[in-house]
Amino acid sequence: xxxxxxxxxxxxxxxxxxxxxxxxxxxxxxxxxxxxxxxxxxxxxxxxxxxxxxxxxxxxxxxxxxxxxxxxxxxxxxxxxxxxxxxxxxxxxxxxxxxxxxxxxxxxxxxxxxxxxxxxxxxxxxxxxxxxxxxxxxxxxxxxxxxxxxxxxxxxxxxxxxxxxxxxxxxxxxxxxxxxxxxxxxxxxxxxxxxxxxxxxxxxx
Length: 205
What we know:
The chain is mostly beta strands. It is 13% helix and 38% strand. The strands form five sheets. It has a four-stranded parallel β-sheet with strand order 2-1-3-6, covered by helices on one side. It has a three-stranded antiparallel β-sheet with strand order 7-8-14. Strands 10-12-13 form a three-stranded antiparallel β-sheet, with no helix packed on it. The chain starts with 5 loop residues before the first strand and ends with a strand.
């Protein structure tokens, strides 16, 4: 039996069984058998601010939007192709990014150029998820049905932080908290419309 290819996206795992794929990569997920995907923005970090919240610079704004769109499409394609796709549900991240659009108002010396910004969320990369809300807790452990997560479990912050998701989700039990089971993953291959993020204006100084 040929060895299965396993891609890890957003994080690395020790050993020769896993192939690390950078978040900025345009890699197709149809080239692998199993996908391990950790939600996030890769190596991109917001350095600016907008109304007291963090804002990606112009260059990272472009890359972040491209990456989220790419992985959303690839995860959906891999799922529809029958690949095993495992998404690790870490803490949701929500920042602002430049859309590339500008608005000009006024005339002459009073002319003002305004950059348009929009909220960007890390879970936009996951198909069929409409929203994600951060929840925290420490009394979480793997169930016997989730032994395939064991190598990752020891390296992950998922033990302390979980998201509450809404969307067209098929939930699989993989974690438990004392007597109450907790939810991790997974989604079924059907489509769902996602509302466009609200655009806002940021004036240039």
